[in-house]
Specification:
The chain is mainly alpha-helical and 154 residues long. The protein has helices at 8-21, 26-38, 42-55, 60-72, 76-89, 94-107, 110-126, 133-140, 146-153. The protein is built from nine helices and no strands. α2 packs antiparallel against α3, α5 runs antiparallel to α6 and α6 (94-107) packs antiparallel against α7. The longest helix has 17 residues, at 110-126. The protein is elongated and about 45 Å long.
């Protein structure tokens, strides 16, 4: 409730209290990570998401959020591994496929990026249909345009 109301500092204090009472409280670590990420405290957020996945190794959301924070810190290779972790848990996690595809673009791995993008398109057709744009992006960003891809990301 506090986090939803924008009271992030108060929410973090409550999550810390919950963690003191129950150190293995997945929700407290996960929600604290989200609050810290919103505040731009990315290193601390990573620690919270890492704790969350240690407690619940089946949380695709925690792996996904961990990867997103790693991307913000330009830890692209590690982020790709955690997008894979999220995808291995939830094969239909289209946002994880999409973000992995963008991360792969930044590494210059265009073939694998196209493959991940194709999966996004498949799930988008099943679900919301919003990710068809990915195919256009993959076609637009060729190896000679990697600088453009990096500019789009940064």
């Amino acid at each position: 409730a506090l986090q939803d109301e924008g009271e992030l500092a108060k929410a973090i204090t409550k999550y810390d209290e919950a963690i003191r009472v129950e150190p293995n409280c997945y929700e407290a670590h996960y929600n604290k990570g989200n609050a810290l990420q919103k505040l731009g405290r990315l290193k601390e957020a990573i620690s919270c998401f890492q704790n969350a996945v240690k407690i619940n190794a089946n949380s695709s959301e925690a792996f996904f959020n961990l990867a997103n924070v790693q991307m913000e810190l330009k830890e692209v290779s590690t982020a790709i591994l955690n997008y894979d972790n999220a995808i291995n848990i939830n094969k239909e996690y289209s946002s994880a496929y999409w973000n992995k595809s963008l991360a792969l673009l930044l590494t210059g791995n265009f073939d694998e990026s196209r493959s991940a993008s194709s999966i996004v398109n498949f799930y988008a057709l099943i679900g919301s249909g919003i990710a068809l744009v990915s195919d256009v992006i993959i076609k637009f960003i060729k190896p000679k345009n990697i600088k453009l891809a990096k500019l789009l990301y940064e």
